[in-house]
Amino acid sequence: MHHGGQTLIVKRHGHGHHAESEHFDPDKMRNSIVAACLSCGVPHGHADSISRRITGEVAEWLKDKPEVTSEDLRRTATHYLKTHHPDAAYLYEHHRSTF
Amino acid sequence: MDIPSSLAIVALAALIHASFQLSVSVLTLLSGHAIGSKRSQAKVLRLSWGFITGVGVMTLLTLSFISLILLHSFGPVDVPLVVWAIACGLVFGIGVAVWIFYFRKEKGTKLWIPRSFAEHLTDRSKTTKHSVEAFSLGLTSVIGELIFIIPSMVITALVLLELPSVWQLAGIAIYVLISLLGLLVVSSLIGGGYSISKIQKWREENKGFLQFSAGSALVALGFFVYISKVVAEASGVV
């Protein structure tokens, strides 16, 4: 399976528009999806299996894409997560817009 | 003003304070990260209580500090009516500002606080692992929403200065306890296993109502105190 590890993720920061980039890290994505699932009361094992499935789907989507923004990545992961657990998808999508 | 009326004003001001959402947001995020990091339910509750204690202590200190400044400036019973009028104007003005500005007009529950401060609180919520860090996060979050809670605190301090000293202590305790109600409810829900996403969704769906009610309550408080204190004393009714 392609892991999307070569795709560059471009992050844009705040008002200064200072852009940083890093390679796609499947473990980082898996951990944040597990965290969102656990916050919704999903049991550990199920959260782990959902996160693996979503990370695989996102890696597949990243195939042949040399560069995406972190917003695109989050939007796509949210889109896949919605079909598995809408509440977790909501939390995953909005975790930086709480206040 | 008699003691029951004074305490009623203190309770209303504290309820308005409780309706402001920054501390609730930080608590939600803090608990979400703690649960997401596979910490035990007992640890999540300890973090929540550490945070709530921090908020309570900072509220207590800020209210006492404002009361002390007013006491030193004007003495216990001689606060000029113009100071009351200015305080009512402040409450009224912030009430109108809350109507217009409190939540940002975008998805989520983003507030009109400096973005750098919001990012700092977000990052600190993520990295908080010990109760003492949660306590200091609670202290900081009160400072973050100071602009919105200052009017309720100024009115409370002015009212408290007119009370006998035993009732002043009771008034401070009433204010702090009521101002923590929102946090206590959210903490109980999370402790009871309620999903964080459901709490956050409810807050987002009702943010317009929360904003309107907080602004309206501030306007009503300013108007009530202005009539019952400034107008009544200036016209010689009391």
Provide key terms for this protein:
heterodimer; A: 99 residues; alpha+beta; B: 238 residues; mainly alpha; 11 helices
Structure report:
The complex is a heterodimer of chains A (99) and B (238). Chain A is an alpha+beta fold and 99 residues long. Chain A has one domain. Chain A has helices spanning 26-39, 44-62, 70-84, 86-94; strands at 8-13, 18-23, 67-69. In chain A, a hairpin with a 4-residue loop joins strand 1 (8-13) and strand 2. In chain A, helix 1 (26-39) packs across helix 2, helix 1 crosses helix 4 and helix 2 crosses helix 3 (70-84). The longest helix of chain A has 19 residues, at 44-62. With 238 residues, chain B is mainly alpha-helical. Chain B has one domain. In chain B, helix 2 packs parallel to helix 5, helix 2 packs parallel to helix 9 (181-191) and helix 4 (81-101) runs antiparallel to helix 7. The radius of gyration of chain B is 19 Å and the shape is globular.
Quick structural summary:
The complex is a heterodimer of chains A (99) and B (238). With 99 residues, chain A is α+β, with helices and mostly antiparallel strands. Chain A is 58% helix and 15% strand.
Overall mean pLDDT score of chain A?
Answer: 86
Structural class of chain B: mainly alpha
Q: What is the terminal-to-terminal distance of chain A?
A: 38 Å
Strand arrangement in the largest pleated sheet of chain A: 2-1-3
| Number of helices, counting only DSSP H or I runs of 4 residues or more of chain B | 11
- The total count of strands of chain A amounts to 3
What is the β-strand count of chain B? 0
| Largest sheet descriptor of chain B | none
Strand content of chain B: under 5%
Biggest interface between chains = A-B, 21 and 34 residues
Biggest beta sheet attributes of chain A: 3 strands, mixed
- The first-to-last residue Cα distance of chain B is 9 Å
